[in-house]
Design brief:
The chain folds into three domains: 21-45 and 275-558, Bira Bifunctional Protein, Domain 2 (BirA Bifunctional Protein, domain 2), CATH 3.30.930.10; 91-251, Threonyl-tRNA Synthetase, Chain A, domain 2 (2-Layer Sandwich), CATH 3.30.980.10; 564-663, Anticodon-binding domain (Rossmann fold). 37% of the residues lie in helices and 21% in strands. It is built from 21 helices and 29 strands. The protein binds one RNA strand of 75 nucleotides through α2, β2, α7, β5 and β7.
RNA sequence: GCCCACAUAGCUCAGUGGCAGAGCACUUCCUUGGUAAGGAAGAGGUCUUGGGUUCAAAUCCCAAUGUGGGCUCCA
């Protein structure tokens, strides 16, 4: 059933171990299974930056920067990350910065009520209930007031309160949110039978805030900081609670670290897939279909190479590809449970008094094919792959580029297995994932999510499946994290994460071992060796996940400089003069005949300009043809890294490039 | 969905109430070249849409649509 095997599952966005459960979302029928889950997307924090003004005096720098073979700068970004705060040691300082920001805001906006103000990755935030909406001009004023507090070097003074006195104090200050926090803490303590919590405040200068601590010794210990942005944020993240205003800031030990961080943000902004998608002419978005991608010819080429590679892998691994309808009767969705639990995310269509929905997932229809025959134990494993076009009615405010769309295609598959085949199938799957990711130089990390409290099905079945998964992961080699109780209510699962070139963690695929949903709800059976009907297990898996999202991640990972094998344009033939055009076309056809994606620059521009354009488009090879080359039937390759290679005979070049493409190496 | 911001030429953006702008791209002409921008001319916009204020609106106000930053990293 209705699983989101990788699908549009959102990346966690935080560079933390997958096992870190701080960002864990509640597990339940809606969240884990049916919903595409509205997980926050913190990675975009990296690129929250207003567009700089582009003046006509300085396009050169920016342009040249973009043209660089960006994987070099990706390495630098990784280095930059190595210097960043990875262990949370900056947290007290950043949390102190949040307090200083709150002090400044209270000073500038009397009557402000405070929400919470934690340290976060790379910085801090604080939520405020303010008398008026913030404007862009407020941030510098707040910063200035913060600097004054830092210059004054007020000590942070901790005070512990009797709980009732503390509460009275906060109530007296009108800090209703703080009172709520305190009350909740006390209630929780009572319920769990633990002692009353210690109520502590920290004071710096005139400002007192309920806080557990710790803090740095004094305001002067706060390092270089900058306020970054502000936005709305529901109190406690709940839509039925007031909308507060959140200000984000960043703080570091040294000016160099702050500068490095700001530079990283800027680099991330340059790699933003939406920006590169336009620059490289890969895709566009239009308000006639919000949340759905218009793939341009080059984007579609990229798409087809990824899809082709996966099809080749799947063919080799014994998958069979199917294709099922997009428009499907409500009857199927009622049986699958979508109609009850997922309706708000489905696009419903009425025709001749019947209701249909655009499919949000492929799984229910996969079972229709499974059930089209009486299946024998000899038929299993049955691996049904489908590149189905899915629609999910995501809330308008959550749409974002390629990473959060309403229409997408997954490299989806449902594998029906006998219980005794589970081990071998999972092993094969882990291998497939490693192989596919190696095409991009990505190294998958696995996390094992186990049975949640509200699990369906026979606990013994769960135990067996979990022990099989654990065993497979143990033998597979390499570390994996365990996320206790983070499985879906019908399936334990393996989540796959990668780190991209900017050090951002993304959740990619999910392998779910469906014990009960598809098999039970659709009453799937096979006839076992003794002639009796038996229940198969269904593995839901996607390796890329949503192709849209995967391509978005690839664009940012490679900064648009895709590996040769999947680059939309693998080579541009650059004739030096018009008289070389004919030979250029001839060479291009030769290469195209070998399955390579090759363009000819037929413009009347000078060769330098043609090379510049090809560089801008991050084309792996430029093949220069002048008098010498035409005469000798050779071409002089230049790589996008700027390397000029010796002229090479056409046939030899075609052989070399075709081999290189077939190798699917990540560079 | 909610909060805030933004929406001007294909792209990136200037333009704060009085004739619609720039660079790149595009078209044409000149240039026929050796590894990151040769030169000139031209064309191109109902300033997202709908209302309103005003003698006058790209500009101010309201709304819609779209886009962007966010919306439990828990005192």
């Amino acid at each position: 059933m209705p699983v989101d095997p990788a699908g549009t599952a959102r990346h966690s966005g935080r560079t933390r171990a997958p096992g870190d459960d701080a960002g864990r979302r509640p597990v339940g029928p809606r969240e884990a299974c049916l919903s595409s889950s509205h997980v926050d997307d913190h990675a975009t924090v990296l690129r929250r930056r207003p567009m700089p003004q582009q003046t006509h005096d300085e396009p050169a720098d920016e342009a040249l920067d973009l043209l660089a073979p960006e994987r070099g700068s990706a390495e630098e970004l990784l280095d930059a990350r190595a210097h960043a705060d990875g262990d949370g040691s900056l947290d007290p300082m950043r949390h102190s910065a949040a307090h200083i920001m709150a002090e400044a805001v209270m000073d500038l906006f009397p009557g402000t009520k405070l929400g919470i103000g934690p340290a976060i990755r790379d910085g801090f935030y604080y939520d405020f209930d303010l008398p008026r909406p913030l404007t862009q001009e407020d941030l510098p004023a707040i910063e200035e007031r913060m600097r004054a507090s830092i210059a004054a070097d007020h000590p942070f003074v901790r005070r512990e309160w009797d709980p009732d006195e503390g509460r009275a104090f906060l109530a007296d200050q009108g800090q209703t949110y703080k009172v709520e926090i305190l009350d909740d803490l006390r209630t929780a303590a009572q319920l769990s039978g633990t002692p009353e919590p210690v109520v502590s405040t920290y004071q710096q200068g005139p400002f007192i805030d309920l806080c557990r601590g710790p803090h740095v010794a004094s305001t002067g210990k706060v390092g270089p900081f900058q306020l970054l942005s502000f936005s709305g944020a529901y109190w406690r993240g709940r839509e039925d609670r007031p909308m507060l205003q959140r200000i984000y800031g960043t703080a570091w030990n040294t000016q160099e670290e702050l500068d490095l961080y700001l530079w990283r943000r800027e680099e991330a902004r340059k790699r933003d897939h939406r920006r590169l998608g336009t620059q490289l002419d890969l895709f566009s978005f239009h308000d006639i279909s919000p949340g759905s991608v218009f793939w341009h010819p080059k984007g579609q080429r990229l798409w087809r190479s990824l899809e082709g590679a996966m099809r080749e892998l799947q063919d080799r691994r014994g998958y069979q590809e199917v294709s099922t309808p997009i428009l499907v009767s409500e009857r199927l969705w009622r049986q699958s449970g979508h109609w009850d639990h997922y309706a708000e995310n489905m696009f419903v269509v009425e025709s001749e008094n019947q209701l249909f929905s655009l499919k949000p997932m492929n799984c229910p229809e996969s079972t229709v094919i499974y059930r089209s025959h009486l299946r024998s134990y000899r038929d299993l494993p049955l691996r049904l792959a489908e590149y189905g076009r899915l629609h999910r009615n995501e809330r308008s405010g959550t749409l974002s580029g390629l990473t959060r769309v309403r229409q997408f295609i997954q490299d989806d598959a449902h594998i029906y297995v006998r219980p005794d085949q589970l081990t071998a199938e999972l092993e094969a799957l882990l291998g497939e994932i490693r192989e596919a990711y190696s095409w991009f130089g990505l190294v998958p990390r696995f996390a094992f999510a186990t049975r949640p409290d509200k699990a369906l099905g026979d606990p013994a079945l769960w135990d067996r499946a979990e022990s099989i998964i654990k065993d497979v992961l143990d033998r597979h080699g390499g570390d994996y994290a365990i996320k206790p109780k983070d499985g879906t209510f019908y399936a334990p699962k393996i989540d796959i994460y990668i780190d991209d070139a900017l050090g951002r963690e993304w959740q990619m695929a999910t392998i779910q071992v469906d014990l009960v949903m598809l098999p039970e709800r659709f009453d799937l059976t096979y006839i076992d060796e003794s002639g009796q009907p038996a229940r198969p297990m269904a593995i839901h898996r996607a390796i890329y996940g949503s192709l849209e999202r995967f391509i978005g991640i690839l664009i940012e990972h490679f900064g648009g400089a895709f590996p040769f094998w999947c680059a939309p344009v693998q080579a541009v033939v650059v004739p030096i003069a018009d008289r070389h055009l004919e030979a250029a076309e001839e060479l291009a056809s030769l290469l195209r005949g070998r399955g390579l994606r090759v363009d000819v620059d037929e413009s009347s521009n000078r060769m330098q300009n043609k090379i510049r354009v090809a560089q801008e488009q991050k084309v792996p090879y430029m093949l220069v043809l002048g008098d010498r080359e035409v005469e000798a039937r050779t071409a002089a390759p230049r790589t996008r890294a700027g390397e000029q290679q010796p002229a090479e005979a056409w046939e030899a070049l075609a052989d070399r490039l075709a081999t290189e493409a077939a190798d699917r190496r990540p560079e």
